[in-house]
Amino acid sequence: MWNTLFYLRNRLAECLWLRPLVMCIVSVLALVVAYYAGTWFEGDHFPEISADTLKVLLGVLTSGMLVIATFAAGAMISAYASASQTATPRAFPVILSDDVSQNALSSFVGAFLFAVIALLAVMNDIFHAGARFLLLLLTLGVFWVVVMTFIRWVDRIARLGRLGTTLGQVEETVTRSIQHYQASWLWKACPPDPNPKGLGIHQSQIGYLQRIDWPRLQEIAEEANLRIQILALPGKFVTPDQCLAILSGKSKEDLNAKEINEIQNAFHIGDKRMFDEDPRFGFVVLSEIASRALSPAVNDPGTAIQIIGQFVRLLHLWKNPTREFNPEKQSRFDRLQVAPISLEGIFEDAFLGIERNGAEFKEVMIRLQKAYQAIGKMDEELQALASQHAQQTLRRAEEALAFDEDYQAVKAICKPENP
């Protein structure tokens, strides 16, 4: 249930039309409330507000808000294009879900619709004296919201699409994805058998496994008295010949087509990877940004060094969960088995591109060696992986660095006894 809500929330956050639509509805409802409230309290003594006063204020809103909303949309599109060019197209969903920009656009569109409808009502004498006073308060409130939103949005749009901001947003997204994974039952799930036997589940679609409906799989397993061993995690590219899960506990003849079809439908496949249940994808995106920064066309080793630091923070978070695991979650999925995310795979996703494309940069190689030393002190498993990659990076540096003193500087940091 919570996984589904988490997934839907992230998809809705990427819809630019949703918040403007909500603000438009809120604007119309506010005018309706003002009208009826003014009618109910018509006999009370409200300050007399002339219709001309409201016409002037609402005219300012109608003439300005549409222009500002158009300008905001254009600025956001420019920022999105800039981010795709300077970072990587895979970071676009992260930038698209920026709350400040979406709230600003929603406020401007909502204020415009509010002003247009209110102005029409005032010009046709629909509002009585009490309602006009309430409408004045609403209009002043809209002015205050628009001004504060615009000030905040200008500060945000000056940074939106810049590489540093994009890196921060991607890291925040990966952090949420890791924390979501650590808080779920998958963090301490029972792994599949080494050689699982049973009925294999396949999908006819070709694409990336985006999410798995774990509660539905557990429900089906309980109803059919099955044990399901999941062999593919979100983020994996699947084809019809690849087995997604193994069903044990019943023979193929004892399972009906409906149960098999429902199990297949629990695996959602799409044309691209998503951050929600795929923490490794965030490491891939950051690595792509670093590789682009190290390309001859960009030649920006500083960005790669910054991303190496982000990897150290993310791996530290991986080994030091900020949320306490709830054992009850594990017991709710007692009929499912799934392998944990491979740390070796995370290392490959994160560092392989930087090792390969940054081998000619002395400063990048030195920073990598220092990062491996820091990572190796976190955990024994990480120490083995860090030592392996440190030696691999050193060999790449030996091949790529033409100046021997540069290579010796990298070698001096890479100490086998303390990787």
Describe this structure in words.
- The protein is of the alpha+beta class.
- It folds into three domains: 2-161, no CATH class; 185-270, Pyrimidine nucleoside phosphorylase-like, C-terminal domain (Aldehyde Oxidoreductase, domain 3); 279-331 and 339-413.
- It is 65% helix and 6% strand.
- The chain contains 16 helices and seven strands.
- The protein has helices spanning 2-13, 18-40, 51-86, 92-96, 99-123, 129-157, 163-183, 214-224, 257-265, 279-293, 301-319, 327-331, 343-357, 362-376, 380-400, 404-413, and strands at 199-201, 207-212, 227-230, 237-238, 245-248, 267-270, 336-338.
- The chain has a four-stranded mixed beta sheet. Strands 4-2-6 form a three-stranded antiparallel beta sheet.
- The protein is flat.
- The two termini are 43 Å apart.
Task: Summarize this structure as a short list of keywords or feature phrases.
65% helix, three-stranded antiparallel beta sheet, DUF2254_membrane, 16 helices, transmembrane, 7 strands, alpha+beta, 419 residues, Aldehyde Oxidoreductase, domain 3
Distance between the termini: 43 Å
Number of discrete helical segments: 16
The largest sheet has its strands arranged as 1-5-3-7
Rg, rounded, reads 28 Å
Helix content: 55-70%
Question: How does the major sheet shape up?
Answer: 4 strands, mixed
Domain count: the total is: 3
Name the helix and strand elements from N-terminus to C-terminus, one letter apiece: HHHHHHHEEHEEEHEHHHEHHHH
InterPro entries: DUF2254_membrane (IPR018723)
Keywords: Membrane, Transmembrane, Transmembrane helix
Protein name: DUF2254 domain-containing protein
